[in-house]
């Protein structure tokens, strides 16, 4: 194995691979390969995929690069539903056949972190957690995450649950997640903050050269945050964002600016 760079707190978001939900136009396949290569070469090893289109794209990129083994793949329950292949379709509860579909889209035999999108049907959620546990036992899944989690979901987890990761949007427009993450840390779970830039739209709204740097540092420095997922349709963002996370604590002046943007 080649020499591993220091692992970053930063992870790559799957919206990188689709046209919707971002600022810049769709990255070409070549650009997508460059982005993932830059990530892996610089210690960004965690890659999140939400929509099925992102799994297909990441599968193709990793096959072209021949670097599947270096990536920690996180995948959510958003599927290719009949007649809706070209749409971004909301989540569906996990069913037994889903895991093989996901593995095939990703062109792999193993998903590192399988994410279950939470909802309020307690019974169904428990069934999904049980199913994920079976997939862990079968060796198809490494570990399990709960997505869009809130405190109530954590409090209701059964004693023998397989969940190790908690994922939720956490940014200056969505600060309530802190409460969830505090509980998650008390339970010894790994916390994954999503969308530090509120999909990039917040950056447009603030329109300051410092915005991306400060918003990313604001999240990544929170003690209750273990990982931060950002989507980046340009390879340049990889270095910009890595440098931001290494820049350290916000100064008083920087904190004041952030309060203004809130
Ligand atoms: N928010 C949710 O509800 C949610 C739910 C499930 C999963 N996720 C995960 O979280 C990931 C990230 O969320 P997100 O894409 O919604 O929002 P985000 O990461 O907050 O914002 C991404 C946007 O920020 C821009 N950007 C990235 N780095 C930049 C920089 N240094 N300077 C200027 N602009 C920069 C990107 O521009 P480009 O257009 O150039 O890329 C992109 O449009 C998703 O990919 C997904 O994996 C989020």
TrEMBL record:
Residue stretches making up the NADP-dependent oxidoreductase domain: 10-201
InterPro entries: AKR2_Oxidoreductase, NAD(P)_OxRdtase_dom_sf, NADP_OxRdtase_dom
Domain of life: Bacteria
Leader sequence segment: none
Pfam families named in the record: Aldo_ket_red
Identification of the protein by name: Aldo/keto reductase
Classification lineage: Bacteria, Bacillati, Bacillota, Bacilli, Bacillales
């Amino acid at each position: 194995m080649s020499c591993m760079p220091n692992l970053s707190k930063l992870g790559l978001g799957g919206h990188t691979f689709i046209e919707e939900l971002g600022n810049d136009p769709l990255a070409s396949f070549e650009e997508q390969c460059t982005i993932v290569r830059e990530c892996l070469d610089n210690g960004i090893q965690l890659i999140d995929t939400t929509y099925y289109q992102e799994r297909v794209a990441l599968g193709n990129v990793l096959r072209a690069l021949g670097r599947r083994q270096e990536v920690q793949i996180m995948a959510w329950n958003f599927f290719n539903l009949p007649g809706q292949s070209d749409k971004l379709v909301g989540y569906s509860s996990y069913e037994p056949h889903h895991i093989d579909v996901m593995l095939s889209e990703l062109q792999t035999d193993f998903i590192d972190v399988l994410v279950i999108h939470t909802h309020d049907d307690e019974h169904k959620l428990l069934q999904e957690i049980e199913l994920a546990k079976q997939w862990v036992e079968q060796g198809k899944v490494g570990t399990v995450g709960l997505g869009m989690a809130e405190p109530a979901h954590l409090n209701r987890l059964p004693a023998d649950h397989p969940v190790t990761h908690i994922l939720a949007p956490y940014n200056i427009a969505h600060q309530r997640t802190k409460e969830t993450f505090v509980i998650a840390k008390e339970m010894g779970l790994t916390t994954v903050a999503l969308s530090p830039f509120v999909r990039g739209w917040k950056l447009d709204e603030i329109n300051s050269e410092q915005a991306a740097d400060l918003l990313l540092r604001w999240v990544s420095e929170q003690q209750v945050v273990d990982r931060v997922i950002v989507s980046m349709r340009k390879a340049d963002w990889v270095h910009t964002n890595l440098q931001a996370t290494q820049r350290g604590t916000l100064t008083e002046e920087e904190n004041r600016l952030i309060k203004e943007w809130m």
